[in-house]
Amino acid sequence: MTLTLIDWLIVGIYLVGCMTVGLMMRRYVKGVEDFAVAGREMDVNLGIASLAATELGLVTIMYTAQLGFENGLAGATVGVLMCLAMWIVGKTGFVIEPLRDAGVMTIPELFEKRFSVRVRWLAGLFVVLGGLLNMGVFLNLGGKFLVWSTGMPPEWLKWVMTALLGLVLLYTALGGMLSVLVTDYLQFLVMGVGLVITTVLVLHANGNGFGLVADLKAAWTGKAGMKMTSDPFNPFLSDKMGWGYVLWMFVFQMAVVTTWQTTISRVLSARDSATAKSMYQRTAFYFVGRFLLPVLWGAAAFVYFSKNGGLPEGIDSQTAMPRYLSTILPAGIIGIVIAAMLAAEMSTDSGYLLTWATVIYNDIISPCLKKPLSKAGRLLLTRSIVIGIGIFLLFYGLWYQLPGNAWDYMAVTGSIYLSSVFTLLVAGLYWPRANEVGAISALILGAIGPITFLIVEQIWTAHPEIFQSRGLANVIPVILKPAVAGFSSFGLAALGMLIGSLSKSNNTNPI
Amino acid sequence: MSDPFVLFWMLLAAASILWYAFLVFYVGIKAGKEILIMRKTLTKEKITE
To answer: What's the pTM?
Structure first.
């Protein structure tokens, strides 16, 4: 193991502190509104800390570092696009202003007001499907980081995942959003310190960054031990990225910042829409670092292994970064970094567990109940759902094997609902002619692209001969480009909304 | 370093590191105060109920 006693002490102190604070907030939970949206008492700076902590998980660090390993600094382009999208939305109030003013707890709840309870239910179903599949790899990636950075035996992965889940479930199921906000705050502080220290040390180990630039250029031009297969600085020249990918990513990020439930839950928890807009504008630049700093670590890992005989056995583009950090970080510092990464994992897991549980309770189960549950019953049910999701994550994370890179998996599973829900939200808020028929068409058509992609990808990986024998060997790789699946899902959703709404005039319910 | 993309990424990296360091202190202090206010409000509401 690479951790010393001082490192384990640092990790232990952080975990105990976090759990204590998280459990203390339990006493303020009186009902579902406190549990789900913190009684709407969240102010700007706490919102920024919570949003930043939730959206920077260990899974983020793992997939962005993988992007850095495979694409150099160009891998951080997505972060720049996300910053741009969030700032534009915060400045203009596009979608988030009318959404907060509507006073709902979830986006599907808005769809009931605007379209019908059927649309709410179907949207809730797709939101949960996409969200849970997306979240399905969080524990696995987080566990891999901890195993490879601490030098634990790889066979311990499932126990590490179980322990992580247990800790998070404890304060999330009991204290809900109030616990999540306060623990997010602590995790924001620890993560911030860890990220800055790690990045400074990584740059210092690479000639204060200048050495890294020179080595990446050498890797791109084939003058290093390992060849980088795309331009490490220019995303438009990259084979793996290019103009089409950049454009898709911008559209995708606009959809993320306006519809991704975990981000939107902070908007809905804000005191008012002005607070929500301010929070978005002030958090936007944070997302550049969210991608760029771990991308730097991934790129540095590439350079390191390139100079040291290539990737060791058992290490791939995903696990290279944690292995690299375990070699360059000194004792004490690695303890802080591990605590920071634990903080990142826990804040994301808790935020996402709560988000999907709220949608399942609010938008799938509640509309089906003939008689509303009591206050205690509603709280018990929401807590049970949180635990159920946790158990699903554990088994899915242990079973599902990622065929490609983690970011592409996240983008495609996210698109299952992003494309259709974004279309519904924009049309519902800004197009009076949008109606229930259009909404249902958009939901179904928008999900077809990404679901088809996931199924075809699994079959192609396991049994390529099925497609080869039908002369599709050249077609499948094109269909499996993430930008193709992504654009097609947005296009189909928009088409469904347009044609469906125009084909039938229903009574519409403007917000 | 004459490549504009290289310059872009290096400047962005430096700005991100400084921004994160600043945020930890600035947002950390302000958000900490907001948590105390939130607790006071929640305690008052609990007593009222």
So the answer is: 0.82
